[in-house]
């Protein structure tokens, strides 16, 4: 059956796009299915992760039907309200952050001891090395037009090595990898959070999803509030019996994980702008630059890098 015939049978109409996927939302009331269209090379990773998460009783949309060629998935509709919309409407940020952090812990615990499931890909040091080139190639090279000299290259490689070592030393758990407010749906039937856009999930550092949540593109919560939430997360892990580092060491590992991710994001947003024509992503650069400089300032070992990074501040967007 042709895909558009399949869609018409379910009364589906085009609604919106995000990342590499196309969403087709129902014309009918909530709790009806909707169709997710993915490129053929992405459909199997999505289905595999959904299967793992669903079997682990994690809150993800149910797959009602799927075709790998072309890549269409008929999914349970989780409604229209994401966590960003709730917070924009004045929702209690602390209460919702506690709920989101509880979901991260639930995800991490779900991946423990599931040896029968095919393992998720590893967030390896090789992958982190590849991600570091996004910052140098797309942010420094394409956006700022810089050609690094050998001294600058050596300084950056030393920084990236510190960040890789910090991530590799952490317990490795299930990681959503894009755990932020737009990818957390608030279910209309229960008010509980559910995860979407999880196809890039990996087995990686236990601070990664926390860093994704707290260093957000939409709100700068400030260092003090992020630190307080990070310590709340640590306390929650302690209640579940995990062997934990001292609070100061945990804060350092969270900040370094966020620094690695935010340097990557600067590069990704520039790539989206220049390669894919999505210039609106440049508007987010100042916020992530602020995150980078704050992380360097908060880290005694890395504080000297502030002087190196200072001339690389993003110019104000021109419209």
Automatic annotation (TrEMBL):
Stored SUPFAM superfamilies: Protein kinase-like (PK-like) (SSF56112)
Limits of the Aminoglycoside phosphotransferase domain: 34-238
Lineage of the species this protein comes from: unclassified sequences, metagenomes, ecological metagenomes
Gene Ontology molecular functions: transferase activity
Coiled-coil regions, chain positions: none
Keyword annotations: Transferase
Protein species of origin: mine drainage metagenome
InterPro entries referenced in this protein's UniProt entry, alphabetically: Aminoglycoside_PTrfase, Kinase-like_dom_sf
Official protein name in the record: Putative phosphotransferase involved in cell wall biosynthesis
